[in-house]
């Protein structure tokens, strides 16, 4: 599907960081295909759902290398943070405080957070400024 999507002309939005499998490492084929899709500049990725694919308790540090790799491949203008609310079928209670601290740790620069929380979603969804 990746080549078809990359050349279709439609904008693609991938949820939950593509749900990689952290023990499989960054080189897993599905995740590499997602990174390649990011390089096309026709796709966006939600940096979300860490609880859904993490094998660790909050703050889900085993997912952070995937978040960083996605930002490198997609660039901040094609990444957005998502809250995942409502947390359907979450195996544990999801705490927004933990999620916000993870954002601060992953993106210490305020301008990067502005892109993730405002600029990229506004552009993607056509919100008025």
In words, what does this structure look like?
The chain is mainly alpha-helical. It has helices at residues 2-6, 29-39, 50-53, 64-74, 96-106, 110-125; strands at 12-14, 43-47, 79-81. The chain starts with a helix and ends with a helix. The protein is 45% helix and 9% strand. The protein has a 3-stranded parallel beta sheet with strand order 1-2-3.
How many angstroms separate the termini? 34 Å
Count all strands and give the number.
Answer: 3
User: How helical, in percent, are the residues?
Assistant: 40-55%
DSSP strand (E) fraction?
5-15%
Brief summary:
This protein is 45% helix and 9% strand. By secondary structure, the chain is mainly alpha-helical.
Keywords:
129 residues; mainly alpha; three-stranded parallel beta sheet; 3 strands; 9% strand; globular
């Amino acid at each position: 599907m990746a080549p078809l999507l990359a050349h279709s002309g439609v904008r693609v939005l991938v949820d939950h960081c593509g749900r990689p499998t952290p023990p499989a490492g960054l080189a897993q084929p599905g995740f590499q295909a997602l990174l390649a899709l990011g390089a096309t500049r026709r796709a966006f990725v939600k940096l979300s759902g860490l609880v859904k694919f993490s094998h660790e308790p909050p703050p889900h540090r085993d997912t952070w290398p995937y978040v960083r790799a996605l930002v490198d491949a997609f660039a901040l203008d094609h990444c957005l943070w998502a809250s995942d609310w409502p947390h359907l079928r979450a195996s544990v209670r999801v705490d927004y405080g933990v999620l916000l601290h993870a954002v601060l740790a992953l993106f210490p620069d305020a301008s990067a957070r502005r892109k993730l929380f405002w600029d990229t979603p506004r552009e993607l969804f056509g919100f008025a400024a």
